[in-house]
Amino acid sequence: MAMIGINSLKRKIKMNTKEYQTYSSQNNQNICEPIADYCRVSRESMGSLFEDIVSDVTESDIRVVELFAGVGGFRIGLERASACFKTVWSNQWEPSTKRQDASIIYSERFGLEGHSNQDINTVPTSSIPECDMLVGGFPCQDYSVATTLNRSGGIEGKKGVLWWQIYRIIEESEHRPTYLFFENVDRLLKSPASQRGRDFAIILASLNDLGYDVEWRVINAAEYGMPQRRRRTYIVGYKRGNYAIRKSGKEEDWICQNGIFARAFSSEAVTAMKSFEIKGTLDEVSANFNKNGEKCEFENAGFMSNRKVNTIKVSPLYNGPFLTLGEILLSEDEVPEEFFIPEEEVEKWEYLKGSKSFMRTNAAGFQYKYSEGGMAFPDALDKASRTIITGEGGKAPSRFKHVVKTPSGKYRRLTPIELERLNMFPDNHTEGSSDMRRAFLMGNALVTGVVEKIGLSILSNAGKFDDNNNLIVD
Fold first, then answer.
1. 217-256 b/e with 16+ CB inside 10 Å = b?
2. Alpha-carbon gap, residue 381 to 330, rounded angstroms
3. 140 in active site
4. What is the pLDDT of residues 378-419, one digit of tens each?
5. Structural domains in the chain?
6. Which terminal Cβ of the chain has fewer Cβ within 10 Å, N or C?
7. Which of 39, 84, 131, 140 is catalytic?
């Protein structure tokens, strides 16, 4: 495939401007209700939303490569946003298990063509198709940079840290993607504790050196009407020169009004803008950024261009409907018996979820007081759910698993379908794995509705260029 240039990209975006405007108008810029309706319908009765094989890619498409694909959260969100997003290649590999559940499910839902179940460390960049957008929810690891080794010809991340595989793929690509779209945990902005913000500074400096401007936002899906309180850091990068902040006014306006995230998720500034420069080589950033600093340099929103960082704390602005845990539940008669908690075990669950304080002794014989606050039992049905964790599955009593009370007064755990709905996946998307593994996969997944809204915003913004390929902001 030939790489699609900026003029072709402008043409393909123009084809989707009407689509975006119609979608936003029909749904009042709120995607929760139609997605909830979709989730309530089984794949069998709805038919397949996606093709089982990669369809022909045309000039009007945006070719997507999905790394660390899991069960396809990025793909679902983007392809819901627009048919012009076409995933041409994906990679999913679980190093700690023989059975590759996520990869198996991905292949069953989307087909084998263009899917790789190989350790990304061993995949040559030359075997990955050219793309317009590179996406992925890369694992949160130690991003510190070891000394550059002349014999390896590049920077070595510690113990195969997967961020450096993203870096390697972009760096080695003959035609680098126009867009980057990544997801990570919210603590990424503050890690590690000894050098607050160092890891994120390394990521920003890396992308800058590869030729990208970057914006980011920490988004809690529930604050924008989605059914789960899941707070994650989202990062969008675009080739320097394809977007321009000129004509947008103050930097604060870009973050709160005109940028990719601002148009997808309205917000207002609650602190003053903070600006600084990330200086030095990548290994110098690793060694020196915020050294011995106690306060994090990065707020929950910002952008970076030419290593200059502008960051500000924002608060959500949203007045649309809110989906709750109660609204996505199956009816009681649809829930398999194994998800109900036996009456004799309810007391164990109540104890684990209750507040407690007692003395503990560590391995060295030192005694200390251990305390933990209480958690709701059962979970409230009139609010968004708590964050799904990977240990959500299984019958064993747990402090962190969700428990709901049924209309008949029984207590039960959440089913795999309900966990899928909380991440806004199609019903039974993870069918084929054990209930335990299905819960694990959803604990690792993202809220697809967030990806969809960001995808729509990328389409909306990318269609507005002047003759010098600079973004024109309304």
1. bbbbbbbbbbbbbbbbbbbbbbbbebbbbeebeebbebbb
2. 12
3. yes
4. 999 999 999 999 999 999 999 999 999 999 999 999 999 999
5. 6-321+447-462 (3.40.50.150), 326-436 (no CATH)
6. C
7. 140
